[in-house]
Amino acid sequence: MNTFRTTRSVRVSGSLFSGGGVGDVGVEWGCAIPVLAAAEILPSRAQLIRKNFPATEVFEGDIWELQQEYINFFNKELNGKRPWLITLSPPCQGMSANGAGRISSSIRSGVRPREDERNRLILPGISVLEKLQPDWFILENVRRMQNTIIRNEHDKPENILACLSRRLTPLGYSIRSNVLNFSSYGVPHHRERLITIGCRIPEVLESCPPVGDVFSKQISPFHPVATHGEKNGHAPVSLSDAIGRLPQLDSLGLLQDSKDPYHCIPRWNENQYFWMKHTPEGKSAFDNLSCIQCKHNNEQEESVACEKCGHTLPRPVLLNKGKARLIKGFRTSYRRMRWDSPASTLTMNSGVISSDMKGHPDQNRVLSLREILILSTLDHALWNKKFSFEGIRYGRMKESDNFSIKLIREVIGESIPPLGMAQLVKHLIALEEQL
Questions:
Q1: What is the DSSP string of 183-204?
Q2: What domains appear along the chain, each with residue ranges and CATH number?
């Protein structure tokens, strides 16, 4: 191992915008790299980190205000040495491809530009990287971040990746950014994310020097090669592989497995149940143009009743002044997944059938909490302990409830899969071991 790393960095990590510590599972539990400190603005997420990582120092609050405390903590704990890794997963809800011209025009006219302030949270994150200068950093976000424009620290419009490169390349970093789908790395659901990795180890930079445009469609040396897919010899982990053996549930008749409180689902109303009961695997209820009464195949896209016999079609409809019409929505709504493929992307609305592709392949329900825990890889045989949600109050809960359904679905929906994070970190460790 080279002198630069052993004298200047310590094999510990820190996380910013930690998402309740879900990604930290892949770092600490999966790669045995302690997460020394985490920063989280939401109290429920901060409680999750404290519960599952009792040795981690949690900075709860606004990172704009806490960034110097976070930096000071690392400097004190490491006696001025650098952490080996910092991970960042800033909020993605505000990411959009806002045009630089529009923001520039707003700034010049003295009008507050139309932007989502959450996009600018990357700025204190960059400041932390500048001060701590870890050997590696991993920035995870939605792929739209590639084209997102923000007001930078000089109140000028700038692409986020360009801002990152401008500020960190002079400090010795080489940065690479690729879009990865974690289903290509053994995660049993599709999750496409922009993964940006920076390194300042001189020996690594010899073979991967800084570049002008850090984004590339071609996989970079900093990113692991896909392990699952047609070219890799391993089929992606399908929904059947992951959850096919779990007990059946039903959104009208059986909402919970008596042996597993996490294997539970929300109740549907009778209309939702009718629409989905007649929806085949992989299809949307919007596709149900065949009459269940006379079997006539209707041709009118807007039909809500059979053109031949008048029987109601099992399609999502609303009644307006006594007249039925199709619900307006994407054709990925009210859709079932397929057994032979990874699950669709797990979102914060994983319990809502009208959201994007949330239906169980053949049972009349959405995925249960246990199923999304498995599909997210938070509930995985690789970890030597269980991630706990017990005892944290969030959202609507009965007094007798031991965990928050809302918290589980939201945290999983907004977090990087732990197995995916572990794959990234193991790849960085392997790169160093090759030196």
A1: GGGT-SB--EEEEEEEE--HHH
A2: 3-233+416-433 (3.40.50.150)
